[in-house]
Amino acid sequence: MAGEKTFTIILPTYNEEENIEKMVVSLREMYPDFQILIMDDNSSDRTKEIVDSLNLENVRFVVRDSDVRGVTASVCDGILMAGTDLFMCMDSDFQHPLEAAGRIYAELNKDYDLVVGLRVDRWALGFKRSMGSWLFHFLASSVLFVHGKKRSKDIASGLFGGSVELFSDVIREHGDKFEMRGFKLLFDFMLHAPSDIKVGGIKYEFGRRMNGKSKVNPEIVYRSFHQCGMVGRFLARIYKAMFS
Questions:
Q1: What is the DSSP string of 54-93?
Q2: Phi, psi of 167 (to 5 degrees)
Q3: Which residues contact 5 (CB under 8 A, 6 or more apart)?
Q4: What are phi and psi for residue 177, nearest 5 degrees?
Q5: Residue range 79-121, pLDDT digits in tens
Q6: Which of 33, 107, 131, 180 is most exposed, with the fewest beta carbons within 10 Å of its own?
Q7: What whole-number distance in Å separates Cα of residue 157 and Cα of residue 153?
Q8: pLDDT tens, 131-163?
């Protein structure tokens, strides 16, 4: 693999027993030099048991026995625990293509501070989630513009990677302002990171969940809109009334 920087793939999980074995084994085979850090929200199924039984090198499983659950909180904890130069986060249900990890790593080695996965067809999310994603992107982009921050073509993306040192500092200094129970950590990072960060991107096809049910629901989307100020809170109420 090009480059010499160390790299951690962070997988936030909750009840992913139907996907986790294939996910971890596939990543381990594709990227034997990468660290895999599974940040689990105290799953009630066999997710931990399955990973432990694999006994794979460079794979860590952390049970987050915390009152604050969700992807944002899990990934933030994972970054602080990573111990590598670089990180990326991705879903453990194969909606994010595994080859994206290598491409994000390669881009980060070009001295980008942040590399975002840009969905080619956001309508693959389904109508409700697509509408929420587009609305959130528009609002978030407007907020970032007003604050003089760097933007991305897909601020609602859950696939991204960056510098562990830089974003650990952002978490420590500004984490109390994040929507920790939400799914849109990328927006919080871009809003609170230095204005001069170097942002890159890779395009990818968003896939369908392999097994199990999505954790995204109208309440998650509602919380995400709340990150975008007064206008976001107004639209959150409209979205919740339409799709709850």
A1: H--TTEEEEE---S--SHHHHHHHHHHH--SSEEEE--SS
A2: -80, -20
A3: 84, 85, 86, 108, 109
A4: -95, -5
A5: 999 999 999 999 998 989 999 999 999 999 999 999 999 988 7
A6: 33
A7: 9
A8: 666 677 788 888 899 899 999 999 889 999 999
